[in-house]
Amino acid sequence: MQTPIYLDNSATTPLDPAVVDAMLPWLREQFGNPASSTHAFGHAASRAVEAARADVARLVGAEARDIAWTSGATESNNLAIKGAAMAAQARGKHLVTVQTEHKAVLDTMKWLEKQGFSVTCLAPQKNGLLDLESFRAALRPDTVLASVMLVNNEIGVIQDIAAIGAICRERGVLFHVDAAQATGKVAIDLARLPVDLMSLTAHKTYGPKGIGALYVRRAPQVRIECQMHGGGHERGLRSGTLATHQIVGMGTALRIAGELMATEVPQLRMLRDRFWNRLKDLPGVMLNGDLEQRIANNLNISLDIPNCDSLVTTLSDIAVSSTSACSTGGVSHVLQALGSDDGIAGNSIRITVGRFNTVEEIDWAADYLRKKIEDCRAGRLQAA
Q1: For residue range 110-156, what is the model confidence (pLDDT) as tens digits?
Q2: Nearest-CA neighbor of 249 among 69, 82, 77, 103?
């Protein structure tokens, strides 16, 4: 078995070979600026950008003109939250989010607090899901925006954004959703969902890093203040020369995700469950987050076992993570929000299977991790 085996697909995914093939011409002979409107090179790039925009919109049930390109989900989150909050501040300066959100949301909220906004950060239930009545009670007359992620990047739970969005609509509150981890794993139909702003990225769905998008509802129109000033690109929402090759890559990746979703999601669930079934009988191994309302490829476990504090650093033959790739400090704020103490929260493993994993890899990796855990308990663990 060739190692290491990659099982960290929530951090990033490998590029699908078809995505690479689609991108290459736009790195070579098709080098035009899509904003150049006077010659064929610019026209070709512009057509490619718009075709990719349509592919992204199709996956999430939006119209192409609702999609604005960004550099990734972090920028999309910043643009959505800062932009909407600033545009609506004459009406109110209260924002609501959840303690288990990605740092790109939580740190943006902290920045807005320094600008005079008030933020309510709700605790989830023990299973990682948001209590709807707690959310409803948190909304105030001066609440202008709520931000709740669709799929948690660490524990993989799926929030009920249809119900949360409906509460926001009742109260006249804008609703932003970080969907970076959801594309290709959860069906999204923005024509029906009560969502005003949605952040998307390519590199969690077998596309390139450094490219993302923000859905901005037009009917009723959502006003946001731009955060980058320049040439007025993307309908004035986000200035900057568009990276045609990355945009084509994102469009291709999300188109493929839509085509494969019906067969890929059951395959990922089978691999994930196969891995879990080889571990779940071990004493001290605990599953984090709701198992049913969860994306198919995510397995997040904590170890309440002596001598296992440095287990992840010894796993040289499998690529997994102990927290989000965007976290620092080694202790998961998500698990802390679920009620885990620092020891347990700092001793967690996130395993996320992907499109290119095989049954043989899963069996080998699960047996490898099981032996490492057993070595921990017996005090035999050796650092890598």
Answers
A1: 999 999 999 999 999 999 999 999 999 999 999 999 999 999 999 99
A2: 69
Domains of the chain from N-terminus onward: 5-12+262-378 (3.90.1150.10), 17-256 (3.40.640.10)
Instruction: Name the nearest CA neighbour of 214 among 43, 366, 67, 63.
Output: 67
206 in Cβ contact with 15 (< 8 Å): yes
Is 326 in the active site?
A: yes
Q: How far is CA 337 from the centre of its chain?
A: 18
CB of 127 closer than 8 Å to CB of 100: no
The CA–CA distances, whole Å, from 258 to 10, 187, 214, 261, 336 equal: 18, 9, 18, 5, 34
Which residues 6+ apart lie within 8 Å of 173 measured at CB?
A: 96, 139, 143, 144, 145, 146, 167
Instruction: Indicate which residue of 121, 226, 326, 376 is catalytic.
Output: 326
The percent of residues in the chain predicted with pLDDT above 70, rounded, is 95
What end-to-end distance do the CA atoms of the chain give, in Å?
19
Phi, psi angles (nearest 5°) of residue 367:
-65, -40
Nearest to 50 by CA among 205, 247, 323: 247
Name the nearest CA neighbour of 5 among 364, 323, 375.
364
**What is the DSSP-derived secondary structure letter of residue 260?**
H
Contacts of 133 (CB under 8 A, 6+ apart): none
Adjacent-strand bridge partners of 199: 178, 214
The pairing of beta strand 174-178 with beta strand 197-201 = parallel
